[in-house]
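To the structural biology subgroup,

Please find below the input and predicted structure for Small ribosomal subunit protein bS20, which we are adding to the shared reference set this quarter. The sequence is reproduced verbatim from the submission form. If anyone notices a discrepancy with their own records, reply to this email rather than editing the shared folder directly, so we keep one authoritative version.
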Amino acid sequence: MANTSSAKKATRKIARRTAVNKSRRTQMRGSVRTVEEAIASGDRDAAVKALANAEPALMRAAQRNIVHKNAASRKVSRLASRIAQLGK
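Predicted structure (tokenized):
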């Protein structure tokens, strides 16, 4: 249990940030999921549109330290390469 007033405030701040970050992480995962579902269904046009929405979501999450920037870039790259495979 926090003893000092500053520690209590820090605890409140952490709780608020955690809630915000959870929301952002969920939103990011949802956008990635739509891309993966489109890829799984074999619909290239839908996958391209979904990736156009997912890429900014991933990069925003990376800017806000929800995921590492390299992890976000890697995810975008792998999704894009999977979409490229659909065209062949």
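Summary notes: The CA atoms of residues 62 and 69 lie 5 Å apart. The chain has one domain: 5-87.

Regards,
Lab coordination
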